[in-house]
Structure formats: structure tokens, C-alpha cells
Amino acid sequence: MRHLWSFLAGLVAAPLTCVLVALGQDGSASTVARWVELGTYNTANLIQGAVYLAAAGIVLGLLGTLRVSPLGPLVAGLLLAGPYVGLFVEPFDVRDVVPTDWKVFGDPLPLLRILDNGTTFLIGVMLLMATFSGQRWRRWPRPAAAAPAPAASSDTEEPTLTDWSALTAPVDHDTKPPSLGYPEPDTEPLPPLPRREVGKTGSPWSGPPRSSTKRDDAAGEETAG
Q: Is residue 24 part of a domain?
């Protein structure tokens, strides 16, 4: 089906391109010649010819560069390049077939000009070269179907919100946390510190009682004296 649509597009694009290129070249050439004759110019006069040429370029670009069936560019290329090839065989007969009195929007349509200067042959060869791409003859690849996800194994099934047995399972407190390589701390209690004797002051932090021997000696010496 895509070959049929491409074939019809080629049949329409060939004459449409001839009309647009003929109008664009004639308008552009006559405008520039008028500028040279008057010695002045107005770029607004060149817009009409530029629009025709731009439209012809868009048509040829869509037909020759998009990845459509190459049957359209092939047909359009043969229709455009064929008349110029006929000039090698019967040039006058070919030129007599081309109409010279057609007009578009009141402007003359000089189809003989684009035939004589080889414009149609140039465009036709360009379109024929677009048919040598082997990928254009192939269909677009269909997107591959997504592979089904593998079924989860029952051994590694994770608990869900409805799996109350896994959520309410008792926690094993004997399980030791992972170690970082340091030695385990000693958890045995240290022995209590020795308690000091209580002095006369009754405070465990007071020093030992002073000796009374020196006091008695001093008192005896005073009595003897």
C-alpha cells in the first residue's frame, strides 16, 4: 500500500515541481534584470519568485529525503529527466510538445526555459539517486513485543502487606549484630574498690587520726621544767 501512495505522490510532484521552478526562475530572473536596467533595487519584488522556489524545494525534499517508498522518487525522476534526454534524439519534436501559452495567476509559465537550461534534468537525476538506498525498499520494523516478566520463585518470595505471618514473626534476640573486626568488649563487672577506714570525724574521706605521743611528751617536759 505504501508503494501505491508513493507512486501517486511522484506523479503529482513532477508536474508541480516544474510549475513552481518555472515561476520562481522567471520571476527571479526578470526582477534582477529590471534592477540592472533601472540601476536601483527593491528587495520586496524578489519575494514572489523566492516563495515559488522555496515551495519547490520543500516538495522535492519531502519526496527525496523522507523514508518513504522509493517508487515515488523513481517515477518523478523519470518524468523530469526524460524530456531532456529526448533532446538528444528529437530536440525539436520534444520542444513542440511543451506548452508555451500557459499562465498561472496571470503570470506566464515558461516551461521551455527550465527544459533548455537543464533544470528539469538536474532535479530528475537527484530524485533518481534517492532510489538507490536499499533501506527505503524495506518496511519499517515492527516494535518487538515486551517479554513477559519471569515468575518469582516461592523460595525467595518477599512478604507482602497481606502476609501477616511474616510480619508478626518473633524476633530472635540472640542473633549478634555483624562485627567490624574489633574485639568484643569485656562485659564482666569490675571488683569494687577497697573502702577506707573511717576516722574520728566519721567521714570516709578524712585523713587518719594524728598521733598523741608527741603531745604527751611535750606536756611532760613542761611539768618537769
A: yes
Query: pLDDT by residue (tens digit) across 49-67?
Result: 999 999 999 998 888 877 7
Q: Which residue has the cell 577506707?
A: 196
End-to-end CA, the chain: 149
What gap in Å lies between CA 148 and CA 106, rounded to an integer?
A: 66
> Domain count of the chain?
1
Rounded to whole angstroms, how far apart are CA atoms 30 and 81? 26
Take residue 46 and report the three cell numbers written for it.
524578489
pTM greater than 0.70:
no
For the chain, the maximum distance between any two Cα atoms, rounded to a whole number of angstroms, is: 174
Does some domain include residue 171?
no
Which tens digits make up the pLDDT trace of 86-129?
A: 999 999 999 999 988 888 888 888 999 999 999 999 999 998 88
Domain presence at residue 105: yes
Are 161 and 95 in contact by the 8 Å Cβ rule? The answer is no
Identify the domain containing residue 77 by its residue range: 2-133
Establish if 82 belongs to a structural domain: yes
Which residues, at least 6 apart from 65, have a Cβ–Cβ distance to it below 8 Å? Answer: 130
CA dihedral 55, 56, 60, 66 (to 10 degrees): 0
DSSP annotation of 181: S
